[in-house]
Sequence to fold (534 residues):
Amino acid sequence: MNGKKWILLIILLGAFLRFYKLDWGEGYFFHPDEYHIVAAVDRLHFPNQMNPHLFSYGSFIVNLIYFTKLFLSSLNPKFLSLNSFLVGRFYSAFFSTLTVWVVFLISQKVFKNNKYALTSALIIATTPGLIQQAHFTTPESTLIFWLFLFIYFSLMWIGDKKERFLYLSAICLGVAIGTKVTALTLAPLLVLISLQGFKKKIKKTFISIFLAAASFLVVFPYSILDWKSFKATTIYELGLAQGKQIVFYTRQFINTRPVIFQIEKIFPYTLGPLILFVGISGFILSVYLTFKKLKKIDKKILLIIFAFLSYSVPNFFLFAKWTRFLSPTFPFFAIFSVYFLQWFSNKFNEKLFTLLLLYSFTLVHIVWTLMFFSIYLKHDVRITATSWINQNLPKNSFILTESRNMLEVPLLGSYTKIPYEFYDIDDNSLLEKNLPSLLVKSDYFIIQSRRLFVNHLRFPFLYPRISNFYSLLFSGKLGFTEIREFNSYPKLGRFIVPDEFAEETWSVFDHPVIRIYKKINNIKLEDYEKLLKI
Fold:
């Protein structure tokens, strides 16, 4: 088969892995960022009200969802009721699939060899972190596409010196920034590449910056039209990212070490151990070889290195180290991995060895892909847990559970469900006083995910009441015992990878671990008060 057929097959594989089970919540939606985006879509009404009042992200994806529904409803009014969650997930999967093709084009420029370019594309198509992001109505998959299209046109400009490629790269960067403002970290790269050559440097730079700014304003006009809100949100979000303000969903990052945290808690799961190890090796090798040959410097790999560092370094050293913050770096690991493989195979200069190396590498990598993809082959764990509860727990039972999830298990049933604000118990004396009476009343307690107990047992000195509660629960002193656990760990045959202790957003949205506790000992109110008193 020729290269065109291979890349088509790889793109189709990537599309299948991304579009399969886009409705993974089976009618329920568990990702909080999806609600924010859908709420912004619902606020739009063309042409009178186009301010999304959402500035945590750019408005590209919000407008795309809205105008898609508007256009389709002009063909048939029934389309107006299209589920915005699913439309957004469609675009995430769509742009993530296109990224496979873009990285293939980039790799052709960098490696000048179709075998290696196809290997890069296959890694991108099967990278678990990219597959997961493609299943969310969030801006990351769209952002990654525009960033790598920017890199592709930048490579074309460096190679061919045709100005249209420079200006196309500027437009792509502008749209990327309008998708998510963090893409601004690559703006210095645009300036640097526009200064390439000897003629009209200032003019090219000015036009490039103008086109990037104009593209940004076209897709995110209310960043200027509602400057006050945009500025306030940006300052707030930056404060969260830098740890100036700790909120309940950033507590997992307290006392974590930059770079080490990502290497331990994000990349092994999102990339797989093989791509992580070989990708880091390829990055180090590319830096070494590039600067070893300064007189014959490879500008294309230098651009890849600079783009990777421009985006990753600021994000590595943020207080908030969410998986989605690092997702635009995932394709770089594929490129650096293949760079290492090319260098290694060139040492032997044997065609058969090269093919065996590439096939073996991709097969080992795909094992982790298959393990991760297994979560989409099963019912959502919260659906399964709810079904079991409805079959096994007595009707009208009192169920105490954790609050601040988008939805709590059981999702339905004839039960009295009491979501409790554990996050605030250390700052709210009234909450503290209410807990013993709720424990007396409750028949069952349900842990919705790892968020509370993992993040707070680490810091009994910061959150003494939360950590005390979970210590007592796990020791059995509260009179409850675990009767059932529901998980959807990555799995292949008998091999299972418990990934609950990865960075929490890797698992809590689409495959959390649900634990159900039953009261087996009735404890008096005054005894609960003594146990819980700090």
Observations:
- The chain has a mean pLDDT of 95.
- The longest strand covers residues 480-486.
- The chain is about 60% helix and 5% strand.
- The two ends are 70 Å apart (CA to CA).
